[in-house]
Amino acid sequence: MADQPTRSDRTGQSRQSTPTIRTERCTPAGRPTPRGGLASLARSDAEDFSVIEAIGGPRGIVESLLPGLVFVVMFIITSNLQLTVIVSAVLAGLQVLVRLAQRQSAMGALSGLIAVGICLVWAWNSHEARNYYTFGFITNAVYLVALSVSMAVRVPGVGLLVEFIRTLPTGQFGAWLADWKNDRPLWRAYMIVTALWTGLFGVRLLVQVPLYLADNVAALGITRLVMGIPFWALAIWVSYLIIATPLYRHKVASAAIAVSGAAADADASEAGRTHTSHHDVAGKDNA
């Protein structure tokens, strides 16, 4: 579990409140259902935030690494693309079947199977092992462009994702957006973290695409593994350290505003009832 930044500070910054719905699902024990990847940052303020769980837990890490590791090792040893593809496909399928047999959630393994399947089909149809990594280039490029655009329009993509998961807007979208954008420390944290992830996707492409163009499958496969889960975990951890404190302060301030608003509504209601009661008494006296 990563160390939690200090939370002794409180903020008095006022914000416009907006109707929201908490979207965290809970386990039977009452704890929020773990989320993986960037979505896990929605719980950056939680005391039990875990980087390991954020990247899928020990088993999820193994299931993510294994197909790619087997692909590159098999191809280096045998130089037989067909055999490499078949073995990797069987392994990815077995991971899903084992999950189902153990009656565990297979969504992570299933999504991994789909991604691996696309990569394997691409390599098989093109008869080039290096094309196993083409789909990864496309996804990294899409993320890079999307996050870059979000920063250019001053609405950080990571902030959008985290806030949408944390508090699903049920009122006006503009009010929901302004609620966290007007919190400057939180907005700056989201901008920094979005820049961090933009850099991660950019570095991956900068390093890996030349290896692809050189048709160096061994170096490309090893680089892909090194810049995969390890880089992802590091980015999640740094993102957590940056977001945790401003997100916690934002939630505390929002809760305080909600309590104040509820108290004001209660006082207004009580005043209305008192005024009505006095009016009724005055009416009876005049009668």
Can you count the beta strands?
A: 2
Span between N and C termini?
73 Å
Secondary-structure-derived class: mainly alpha
Mean model confidence by pLDDT: 79
Major sheet size, sense and barrel closure: 2 strands, antiparallel
How many helical stretches? 10
Put the structure in a nutshell.
71% of the residues lie in helices and 2% in strands. It has helices spanning 51-54, 57-78, 81-101, 107-126, 134-152, 157-166, 173-181, 184-213, 217-226, 229-286, and strands spanning 20-22, 167-169. By secondary structure, it is mainly α.
What is the secondary structure topology, with strand pairs?
Layout: E1 20-22, H1 51-54, H2 57-78, H3 81-101, H4 107-126, H5 134-152, H6 157-166, E2 167-169, H7 173-181, H8 184-213, H9 217-226, H10 229-286
Antiparallel strand pairs: 1-2
Description:
Helix 2 (57-78) packs parallel to helix 4 and helix 3 packs antiparallel against helix 4. This protein is elongated. It has helices at residues 51-54, 57-78, 81-101, 107-126, 134-152, 157-166, 173-181, 184-213, 217-226, 229-286, and strands at residues 20-22, 167-169. Strands 1-2 form a two-stranded antiparallel sheet. The protein contains 10 helices and 2 strands; from the N terminus they run βααααααβαααα. The chain has 2 domains: 50-127, no CATH class; 132-264, no CATH class.
